[in-house]
Each structure stands twice: as structure tokens, then as C-alpha cells.
Design goal:
The chain has 147 residues and is α+β, with helices and mostly antiparallel strands. It folds into 2 domains: 1-50; 52-143. Helix content is 37%, strand content 39%. It has a 4-stranded antiparallel β-sheet. A 4-stranded antiparallel β-sheet has the order 2-3-4-5, with no helix packed on it. It starts with a helix and ends with a helix.
């Protein structure tokens, strides 16, 4: 009978130790679950910032600045032979020159601190015009009046 009581006590202790370990594991899983949810939220924010809309444009040399999304663009020079161009980017009323860029070169334009840059890509350069697209973060396109 003494052996049976001792075995029962040992089983209770083992059972209690298993319950305690299970509680620890459940607590760790709960903590990890919270971290996973936080990481998922951060990932969703990052993905929302990286989603872009492409706004096409066609600029003629010497024309008035054309609105493209949240900015205005004006072509200053273009060389069909070299496939290079220079244009003026108007963020407000002042011109910021983007000089001597190549066809298909990605030009990043930071319009506001803390926001994703705009990306300008000229896909065709001729003697007096360029055409291409401006990639704008989707959050910016919702608040801008572009073409």
C-alpha cells in the first residue's frame, strides 16, 4: 500500500510539473502570437507604402509645365542620338532640374520627408519629346489630382 501511495504522489508531482510546463508554453505562444500580429501589421504598412500607380506622360520640349500626379514636368532638352534628356520638376513654383538622364533610367524624386519617393522613368526619348511614366505611391494618388 505504501508503494501505491508513493507512486500516486510521484504521478501527481509529474502531472503538476507537466501542467506548469504547459502553462509556460502557452504563455510563450501567447507572447509570440502578439509579436506575429505586430510584425504582420508592420508588413502590411510596408506593403501599402510600396504599392504604386503608374501615371503616363508625354512631354514636348519648350512646352508649359504639364501636371503629372502631384508634380508638374517641363522638358528642357532631349537627344535622340544619345537617348538622354533634361527636364524641370516643379514641386511648387520653383524648378528643380533633373539633368542629363538616360532613357529607362529610374529617377527618384523625394517630394516630402518621410514619404516614399516618386519614380520617373522615360521610356522613349526623341529629338524634341520624351514619354514615360511616373510611379506614385497609392496613398499619394488618392490625394492628388493627376492625369
Amino acid at each position: 500500500m505504501g508503494n501505491l501511495q508513493q507512486e500516486s504522489a510521484n504521478n501527481r508531482e509529474a502531472w503538476q510539473a507537466a501542467v506548469n510546463r504547459l502553462a509556460d508554453v502557452a504563455g510563450q505562444v501567447g507572447t509570440q502570437d502578439g509579436k506575429i500580429l505586430q510584425d504582420q501589421e508592420k508588413l502590411n504598412e510596408f506593403l501599402a507604402q510600396s504599392e504604386r500607380t503608374a501615371l503616363s506622360f508625354e512631354l514636348r520640349r519648350g512646352s508649359t509645365p504639364e501636371p503629372v500626379g502631384p508634380i508638374r514636368l517641363s522638358l528642357q532638352t532631349a537627344s535622340e542620338k544619345d537617348r538622354r534628356y533634361t527636364l524641370c520638376v516643379y514641386l511648387q513654383d520653383s524648378c528643380v532640374q533633373v539633368r542629363d538622364r538616360a532613357e529607362r533610367e529610374v529617377v527618384q524624386l523625394a517630394v516630402a520627408s518621410g514619404s516614399a519617393p516618386l519614380e520617373l522613368i522615360a521610356t522613349r526619348v526623341t529629338r524634341d519629346q520624351i514619354s514615360g511614366y511616373l510611379e506614385v505611391p497609392k496613398t499619394t494618388t488618392a490625394s492628388s489630382t493627376g492625369r
